[in-house]
Amino acid sequence: MSALSETPFFIVGHPRSGTTLLRFLLGSHPRLYIPEETGFIPFLVKRRQLDAELSLAQAQRVVARIGRLNHLWRDMVTDLPAFYAALPRPTLAFVLDDLYRRQIAAHGAVRWGDKTPLYVRYIPTIERIFADAQFIHVIRDGRDAALSALHKWPERRTYMDLYYLLKQWVNNVEAGRAAGQRLGDARYIEVRYEELVQQPLAALERVADFLGERFHPAMLDHTQLAREVGPGPQGHTEVQRPISTGSVGRWRSQMTPFERKMAERIAGETLAALGYERPAPGSLNAAERAALLLRGARYWLTNALRSTLYASGILTLNRGMRQGNEGTRKKGNKETG
Description:
The chain is of the alpha/beta class. It is about 45% helix and about 5% strand. It has helices at about 20-25, 55-70, 80-85, 90-105, 125-130, 140-150, 160-185, 195-200, 200-210, 225-230, 250-255, 255-275, 285-310, and strands spanning about 10, 30-35, 110-115, 135-140, 190. The chain is globular.
């Protein structure tokens, strides 16, 4: 089986864990670039086609579906027969590799990566497509990640309450770590958000070594690239500012006593496995037990519905990337990326 000229890498993790920061830090390396979140890879073909050769018609459907699922990747191929004929092999891996290379070309990069946090759930699927892909799993204290999400997406609180966010953090972190145990150290690495903002040099040297890349000093200043690219469709304006440690441990001052108890009961074991601090939160009173049961029931119903929609393909990642005004694309969005 033909190999890609450069090994792809994927930055994954629970949302609001620092994946965007790492995207811009690594993307500041002269050899590397990571476009905006893609979100389409798990929804392109049926499982039996992941590593099979595609016909011209199948390749055309894949390219068209990519454009429907992410407007930043729309109309990238104007001559599909020529595109298809130029592929080293007509597999999904080479189709995607060609498209990613078009995305990173404006930055002069030679190796592409992907930063779509929720691909942490789809590592086995991505590995089936890219047999040698490397995965960087960014992990943040789940209590801080949940609070950050509530601040970032207040309009989503109808179902995305603290209970939901903590449960999803556990599910996503454990899915990534389970995949990592199987992949091994050469293809999987964990990076803590806290390390990334408190000791960025050490963290980036470790990641560069993992990727087989030479550390470059430009990686320590992500703001230049972030200003060039802009906040992107996800509105990550915070990445245009210098690294700050101000959000580390915010749960200590911003969580209520009940929320601390809830966090311990939902995420305590995972927090412990990761070595995060776990002060004794105290026992639940009757009213708190009732509130926790109610939130648990609501989570179960919400998660069951959303899981069904994902499995059916009705719901996909990065729903907001499906629509977009072509005139709003920024220079760094690769074609902007």
